[in-house]
Specification:
Mean pLDDT: 91
CATH topology of the largest domain: Jelly Rolls
Low-confidence stretches: 249-255
Helix content: under 10%
Number of domains: 2
CATH class of the largest domain: Mainly Beta
């Protein structure tokens, strides 16, 4: 069953942390130690740079406030990033306004492997990197909508990887794409608000959807709703092998560059 967490509820978990010598704020949505999935917001100030690194799990990131550099790319709200397991990316360099971003993973991840010192732990497996342009968003246009719109962020790929922005008129209902055949989904409210069980889910509320869940039914509040759907690919067989298992003989696949 899909799980819903409002931004207001998650805000109570906001805490300061230090990692790799960098201090930042983190707000947890789905992040119980050792359990899946994971979703949290990281807030960084100017000068708080995340060095290049990789993770062992698939990951989406959504830049939600501020601006900065992501590798060679300038980013600001609401750009979307996806990196597959063992795909290096970064550095993440906050701009003068700082930078905040959602981190969302289909499986629990134990932590970052920083580069170049962690190259011995980097498995030779297919690499996938995606980075969107800034997504359109206009409250006036949203309030004036008379039909549901679907704006493609990442076109669906054979392994299930996809992302779409749903723009839902005030009081209207829509259905998120079915998650079957994927690795599960997260839905993030980027504009307006949704109504769920008499609770208003405002901007930066989050919904976790398993691959065997039915499509999530969405009802927009009076201001309409913009809902970003982040769909993970199906897990490759090598992802459930031990990290020291034999590497794949195939080369890597990459679209775009970190």
């Amino acid at each position: 069953m899909a799980r819903f967490v409002s931004a207001a509820s998650a805000a109570r978990t906001r805490r300061q942390h230090t990692l790799d010598g960098v201090t930042y704020w983190r707000t947890d949505y789905f992040n119980t130690a050792g359990e899946s999935p994971q979703a949290f917001i990281v807030e960084k100030s100017p000068g708080d740079v995340s060095r290049p690194h990789f993770h062992r799990e698939n990951e989406f990131q959504v830049f939600v406030r501020g601006d900065g550099q992501f590798g060679r790319h300038a980013v600001q709200a609401y750009a979307v990033h996806y990196s597959g397991a063992y795909t290096g990316y970064g550095p993440i360099v906050p701009g003068e306004r700082g930078l905040a971003y959602f981190t969302l993973r289909d499986r629990h991840d134990a932590g970052a492997f920083y580069l170049p010192e962690s190259m011995p732990q980097m498995r030779r497996v297919p690499k996938t990197f995606r980075l969107s342009e800034q997504l359109p968003g206009d409250p006036v246009q949203l309030a004036a909508l008379d039909a549901v719109q679907a704006v493609s962020v990442f076109a669906p790929e054979p392994d299930g990887l996809a992302s779409v922005l749903l723009r839902i008129p005030a009081g209207a209902r829509a259905s998120a794409p079915p998650p079957q055949g994927s690795g599960g989904q997260f839905l993030v409210v980027l504009g307006g608000a949704l109504l769920h069980d008499a609770e208003e889910l405002g901007v930066l509320s989050c919904i976790a959807v398993a691959a065997d869940d039915p499509p999530v039914a969405l009802t927009a509040c009076d201001a309409g709703a913009e809902v970003l759907v982040l769909q993970f690919p199906r897990r490759a067989p090598w992802q459930d092998q031990a990290p020291d298992a034999p590497e794949l003989p195939t080369g890597s696949e990459r679209a775009g560059q970190p």
